[in-house]
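Researcher: Let's try something more involved. This one mixes different molecule types, so please make sure each is placed in the same coordinate frame as the others.
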Amino acid sequence: MIDECRFKYFGETTLVLQLKEKIDLDQLKWLYGLERFVLNRYPDLIRETMVTYHEISITIRPQSGSLKAFKEKLNQVVQESVFTFPGNEISKYTIPICYDEEYALDKVRLEEKLGLNWNIIKQIHSHNEYRVYMLGFIPGFVYLGGMDSRLSCKRLDKPRTKVLGGSIGIADQQTGIYAIDSPGGWNIIGQTPVVLNNFNPHTFPVFHPLDIIHWKEIDKTQFLELKSQASKGINILKLTSNGI
Amino acid sequence: MGFKVIKPGWQTTVQDLGRPGLRKFGIPRSGVLDQYRYYWANGLLGNDLSMPILSIQTLGPKLEFTEDHSIFVTGSPAILTIDKFEVKTQGHLYVKKGQILEIKSRFRNGTIYLAIDGQWQLPKIYNSYSSDLLTPFEGLLGRSLMVDDEVNIIPQQPIFQNISLPQNTTIQPNNHQTIRILTAPESEVLTTSQKSAIEDHNFSIDPTSNSMGMRLDTNINFDTLKPIMLSSSVQVGTLQWPSGNQPILLLNQAQTSGGYPRLAQVIQADLYKLAYLGPGDTIKFKWSTLKEAFYILEYQNTQFKRQWSSVFNNSFEGQL
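Model: All components are placed in one shared frame. Result:
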């Protein structure tokens, strides 16, 4: 299943295990499974882990011995074990999304670049099932995989200085959700009223890696209504199921 | 009690050791770059070592004290005035209620740490008081100081034994520093001559640099080093190289992943040096080895601990 697996040093305390440079769900499941495994197996040794598309970076505590020795351990683990991510920890959500042009800042650009009309674009975008591939880059940003390739569109030539938190964007083969207001170059296709910029440890992160996402289209009136509910602290995010 | 901000200065922030471990959620580490001087500032005041300090850049703040406090300043040499009278910067200082403390940098670059005695009455998030300039945490946790901010600090009665101050609580900025580096995941795309070019050239720090990262200017021009590059994790001290001649050296407020080749990683023992460099200064990189990097860090930490015990007659109880 794992075609390529290479170890790279990243400074004196971080080891990176790199797989094939591709965006692939099975590969990500393997990486998140490995992350879970090493955190359980070496809790005292590891200071921090981080999974991105084709890598896991593992930072060990400085006093826990050499990185070379850790590499040997990890190599053994990778050879011997099978990694899967526990399905009962994966949640399924339905997220409201409004494709109104007030929020879909790149409506015209997307129609032109994709050669499709807005109704079709909306339909294609909201039809698929998406997976949370990773979080990060900027605080709370959610990278989603699973988008229909007909919607693949290059980033803006000139990034916007401000994209509102809750905006949903497209960059190449990915779609993603901005959690906070920030500069950004993704094509904005809509916005969700779900609050994602509350970084309180009890509520953050809202989505976890490998969670499953479905979109539910809402109109502008519903958007405003939900937004106002959300601002009062009412949970408007629908958890479809816990565990798959 | 505490202080009120008359002038915030530029990017004056509250810092402690930051929030390691949250990169996977996109939350930067934040925190101080120079842990040694951070600990000295609190330690010499008799403060709890987990108390935050103010991290001050070239343009320092003006603070009105709302209670009598003792303070201690470490890091880059500062010019301090209390009610407009210049005071010494070495050792303990007392600021009375109603007095105005102004802090300026003596040099063009360099971070100054200001510790104020007592218990800081600020909220913590993820076990840290650090201001994060990227994550919109509430209040001072999510921004730098602003005019009229008030920070409450319950003063304690510091007991000063007759301690002799250590020599190196301040650092003389050096316009040119050697920073030792180790390999990073994309180092292998470099040819041998490219690798030595990184060592042989000077890098000057661009004025657009900030606490997220230093943009470096150099004569080395790398064309696209790697055609496909997926977003991957970065760390404090990572040297990222987009095509061209302006690599980026990431600092403690940096984003947590990036799509540029990661060519090198600053050794941990040299990270503190980055707190004292800024626009116009130059860096020379030197490739190190895992063994050497460990040895230097170990040596540096041991020296620090030894000095700490000789000053306080107590072993160091913080975390390095």
